[in-house]
Amino acid sequence: MVELYRQIGLLPDQDSSPASELTALLERIPAATCRRRARCCTLLPPMGLTEAGLLFRRLAAEPPDDLRRLVRRIVEYFFLNPVRLMGCPFLDDQVCLVYADRPFGCRAYGLWSPRAYRRLVEGGRGAQKQVQKAWASLGVTLPGTVVNYRPSYCRFVTPVNGAGVDDRFLDEIQGRIKELDRRLGPPAGEFSQKYHHDLSFLLTASLLGYDQSLRNKLSVVREHLDHGRGPGLDFLLDRAWEKLDRRPP
């Protein structure tokens, strides 16, 4: 786990690292409250590599038992998210376990204007169709209620300081976060193109191998659609933890 963020320069002892700059940017987004109690936390949001690195650093600091539980959740999310609305793996009894380090997508949700949020949702339609098409080419029809799901616009998010948040301000913060990723160079491009901004994919592939993770995902999804959860998934979850547990600190 440590090696993952070490490779992209996200060391815990680097005060001037991209992680520190990211934290400063995220803290500019006003704190907010919401009475919906985490109903929006159905998906693990797409994120940049710098944001993923911040969460990996957080994971690396977890006690072994908590780390094992979180790794299993994240890997399970990767394998089953095409066929089940899993809920964010960092959500535990309506509490975000990484709230202080949550990515931009989580912080900005509910702060965008309705028009801007519709634009974001429509912008993701193409990617959703590509996902369905890719699975269909493998002979798998994904549940439309899952693959097309996006949280509806939330009118219950209220900034703690009472001030409104301008879309241009959020665009600016998002642009600067993307600039942090560009500074990471090729690894950030690989995270975008190869892992599709998916932290669960990156973690699973780092433990089980990229090609093997894709092959196993196809098997798990087919098994789940035909018979429900099977023993193959539990074997993979145990295998992922064994791989992580054997790595040097």
Rg estimate, integer Å: 18 Å
The number of E-state strands comes to 4
What portion of residues is helical?
Answer: 55-70%
Structural class: mainly alpha
Number of H/I helices: 13
**What characteristic shape results from the CA principal axes?**
globular
Largest sheet: 2 strands, antiparallel
Uncertain segments of ≥5 residues (pLDDT<50)? 7-16
- Average per-residue pLDDT, rounded, comes to 88
What is the strand content? under 5%
Biggest sheet: strand arrangement = 1-4
- What is the element string, with H for helices and E for strands? HHEHHEEHHHHEHHHHH
Distance between the termini: 8 Å
List keywords for this structure.
two-stranded antiparallel ribbon; mainly alpha; single chain; two-stranded antiparallel sheet; 13 helices; 58% helix; 249 residues; 4% strand; 4 strands
